[in-house]
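Supplementary Text 2. Reproducibility record for the structural model of the 459-residue chain.

All settings were left at their defaults, and a single model was retained for analysis rather than an ensemble. We include the record here because the model underlies the residue-level annotations in Supplementary Table 4.
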Amino acid sequence: MAAAAGRARRGARLSAAALLALPALALLALLALPALPAGRGGGGGEAQPGFSPPLLLPPGLREELRQRRRDLRRLEAAAGGGEAAAAAGLGCGDLSRATAVSVLGWGFTKVVARAALAGGGTVALKSVHGAGREVRRCVQRYGAPAGCRHLAAYKLLKEVTLLQRLQHPGIVKLHGQCYDNSGDAELRVTAMLELGSPLEMIQLLQTPWEERFKICLSLVKLLFYLAHSPLGSIALLDFQPRQFVMVDGNLKVTDMDDASTEELSCKEDNDCTLDFPTKSFPLKCSVAGKCEGINEKKNLFNAYRYFFTYLLPHSAPPALRPLLSDILNATGDLRYGINETLRAFEKVLHLYKSGLYLQKRPLLLKDYISLKGFRTVEGEGHKCWPSYSHLGCLLSIHSAEEAAAICNSQLHCQSFIVTQHRTWTGRPLASFQSSWTDLVPDTNAVVYIKRSASSGERL
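Retained model, structure tokens:
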């Protein structure tokens, strides 16, 4: 979850001295929560805390607090049964028994920690970052630290409300929450979330194309859900790779506090220009006075510029590259909406899984001798990129015929075996070798050896 709290401090661990140097850090609030009076803590399904800004706060801060509370109430009303969905979640009691709390990272508004639950398992803990930029700026403006922390807490409450209502494999799971609004101006909120690992784009670029396609497909499915969510079309306003994590190999968005459930209001088409640093897109103003599809298109173009351009084209199967190029062009120009984009991705997936993209290719497996009951000894001599193994050349294939074509395209490849391991698409992995002489018995294996390599040798 460190990606959700700030890329620069990802994976950081704070020493005791560092914690003392940041006395307002929200982690201190976490450590104080076990002492909450009975009835002050909120579990996953309890009502959101109420708050009436005290008159001692500056008028501007009181107004900001009232506005955020109104926004939160509107969202809660739209979310409907979100609280009931989380009723069985974790609460303050579970938080008080959590151990091994360590800070993962922090950002403008929140701090994220990792904690071990008493009943087993680990969670990510999100709370307001009392020393973060948002709170500091507020304090500089109003001089009211407690009120400013409360103002920031409303962003976390908004995120909790959204996570209670939005259920999708591409959204990090909310396991529970705990809050304390016992003070006049204080509101301490802790969200307990599914723990993920930061999304590392540089590492992703080194993975096989099939895994990168999975990331993009997962993202498209998430954006399709957000475009048709129970709360209406939702835009991720802070849409960047650092807002995502990986959980068991799956991409999930983890920061929802800057999500918008409202589409931009307008009076005419000129009010609906969607601006990005390098492009602008004119949109239509609907009869309802909303910029038509602006949330969906904003998400889709951000997916194009942060994910598709880097992950889709490189080392893709040659026969699929024209289709991938069409996807890149159509999303980069916003000629596709999310519905068309999802259909295009599913077409590529179907062609890839079925092997239909391999039609009209010469048959090359006839140039290989197959030996059942044997496999080659794994070594580090023959490598390729990108590979499922850093120690050799392990690639996804549709069939032994495709493996033969791959081996023929590699200068030093002399043999290959089709392993029992399969990828997320169900395709087997094949191990390619520059030698075939080191054979060992394996009743479940078949080794394929180039006839040219075996000529003159006794098998």
